[in-house]
Amino acid sequence: MEKRSSIVGGLILIAVGTLFLLLQLVPSLADQIDLARQWPLIIVTVGGVFLLTAVFGAPPLAVPGSIISGIGGILYYQNLTGNWASWAYVWALIPGFVGVGIFLMESLRGQFKRGIREGGRQIVISVVMFVIFAAFFNGLGGIGQYWPVLLILMGGWLLIKRR
Questions:
Q1: pTM of the complete model
Q2: How far apart are CA 138 and CA 157, in angstroms?
Q3: What are the tens digits of pLDDT across the range 2-61?
Q4: Which residue from 86, 69, 96 is spatially nearest to 134, judged by alpha carbons?
Q5: Residue 58 burial (CB count, 10 A)
Q6: Are 18 and 66 spatial neighbours (Cβ–Cβ below 8 Å)?
Q7: Domain parsing of the chain, residue ranges
Q8: What does the alpha-carbon distance between residue 77 and residue 30 come to, in Å, rounded to a whole number?
Q9: What are phi and psi of 145, to 5 degrees?
């Protein structure tokens, strides 16, 4: 475990060092990358470190890794588009990030079916919540006025599922 974590740490240091060396040697590269708009990638990278650590011997770290990476991805989208108001509904994706983490953790432990069952449930709930809230707050094109139909369908599915 210690050997694997030092390998991951070494690779991260090499990647970060290479990036900063390139920025010093090629100053125009910083203008092309526009580092002021790329700050959420730091959060995505931290999540990526957790995910790499999960792959190399600590599967439970897949859950926080997927949450951190997912939130970093949301922030990256919002920072590039300026659509900060999307937090009104995009937070519903966070349980899905937990589901992805559970799926990865169980898969890394060799329990693929359990990962699909438990993680998949979280992902489905998250996507349904996201669609409902996005339709309610954002309109999502023409389906915005029909979001109550989703509630009706979900209620019907729950009734049928219990029989």
A1: 0.73
A2: 25
A3: 555 566 667 777 777 787 788 788 877 777 777 677 888 889 988 998 898 888 888 999
A4: 86
A5: 17
A6: no
A7: 1-81, 83-163
A8: 20
A9: -80, -10
